[in-house]
Amino acid sequence: MRKALILLIAAFVLTACGEEGVWEEVDRAGAEEEEEFILEYISAWEESLEVQSFSVLEPYYVLNTHGYHTERRQHQQLVSSRSVEALEELHSIYPEENEFGEERVRLEGVFSTTAGGESVEEEQTRYYYLMRKNDEWKIDAIGRENQSE
User: How is domain 24-146 classified at the CATH fold level?
Assistant: First the structure.
């Protein structure tokens, strides 16, 4: 009986933890504003890499979150390798929601990374997890997915 209870609890924990759910495209109020915010952020991201300063991006983030620190590290890695990342071609951008009511914006496009005069282009999908703070959009986290994966 004790083993069965432990197995039941373990199964519950394993299925409950990390469950992201099924994301679906939705039509929600404010989606255009979210999309504009993200495109503005991408432009600021490119500028911040050119001037090698993350402070350009800080107004876009929820500060001192895991997502903020992850993007700061990503920025430092690109700056230390003297790389500039840019959105070359936008394929699609749209809001998504999962069955838990969580929201994000999905962007698909071609991103280029230029370093030392050489440029590499790659199709990527990015997921922007946004939240409202003081009546402004802020980025809580960004997910990256290469199409070749």
Answer: Nuclear Transport Factor 2; Chain: A, (3.10.450)
